Amino acid sequence: MKNISSKQLVSVGLLLFAIFVAAPLIIGATGRWDFYFTLTSVALLAIASAGVWLTFYIGRINIGQGAFALIGAYVSAILVVKSGVSFWISLPAAGIFAAIVAIVIGLPILRLRGVYFAMITLVLTQVVTLTALALPITNGAKGISSIPLPSGVSLFGIPIIPDFAAMESTKLAFYYTACILMIATYAALYRLVNSRLGHLCRSMQQNEELASSIGVNISYIRMVIFAISSFFGGIGGAMFGSIAQSVYPSSFQVADSVNFMLNCFLGGLGYVFGPMLGTLVLYFGWDLLFELGKYQLLVYSIILIAVIRFLPNGLLSVRIGKGASK
Question: What residues form DSSP beta bridges with 185?
């Protein structure tokens, strides 16, 4: 594993300070409690985008992450509402189920060339939406509402996680939960990229035929990476469902899948933390352009095209030098 430099440690320290200290202090001072929901949404979108980035890392374009986010949201909601399972158990279960679905779907399509894989993933979100509309267990178009807030967790009688329902305001609790999940996701992503599996993925990205000729099991690695990618999507979707206390077939759409991909492009495909920055900039950038009214989408598109044209390696390439896992 590559050693972490002092510069990287400082960057991580500043990030943690901004998330857990600076942001709550600023929100408390300004009284803009709605920013907790905004930042929570950014954290969860960054988790799902991390999965899309991972498929890019093996040279595949994934435009179907919204499908796995929707799967995760429904699995968690069904377990919590209809089976009485604790949300904290349903959360990893949602990710695992999304990963299993990805394996079943990926077995045939991951053997295809990249362009065909991208075309098939483009319709996945719509397929899952139509499935949610048709299945009795998902309540069709009515969706699943009145999802209970996460319950408390104790270990040997010591409270580890507070009962969200007993809190006066759950915004801060969801904010910290989402940020902790985001940090864990990107820590795992960084570790994977700098592991032996990550090096094999990089060799596949450069030349799959050459990697196969030296004994790399291309199909197996594609499947593992796609499953991990979908796991992240399922986790993000489950958290969104818990925050909204509801999930509907339209909770995640094709546009969301496209945005997950754009987050990776904007932040930088060559950097592990690119999707995190891309999500932050894209989310707030869209809101800032709201004042432009009917020209919002036009200006938004022009800016994105300009960034991709003049910063092909993303925003992080402005300050950071070369390196796929920096």
Answer: none
CA–CA distance, 319 with 61 (Å, rounded to integer): 26
Residue whose pair of structure tokens reads 């090096």 in the numeric block: 199
Structure tokens at 39: 């930042």
DSSP three-state, residue 131 = helix
Contacts of 211 by beta carbon, 8 Å cutoff, 6+ apart: 200, 203, 204, 218
Residue 303 and residue 259 in contact, taking contact as beta carbons nearer than 8 Å: no
Helix (H, G, I), strand (E, B) or coil at 25: helix
Letter for the amino acid at 36? Y
19 φψ region: left (φ > 0), alpha (ψ -120 to 50), beta (else): alpha
Provide the 3-class DSSP secondary structure of residue 183. Answer: helix
Pick from 199, 239, 190, 189: nearest CA to 221 = 199
144: which strand partners? 247
Cα separation, 225 vs 231, whole angstroms = 10
DSSP β-bridge partners for residue 145: 246
> Measured between alpha carbons, how far apart are the two ends of the chain, in Å?
13
Give CA–CA dist 139/202, Å, rounded: 43
pLDDT along the chain (326 residues), means of 10: 65 85 90 90 96 92 95 97 95 97 89 78 94 95 94 83 86 94 95 91 80 81 94 97 95 94 91 92 84 82 84 78 46
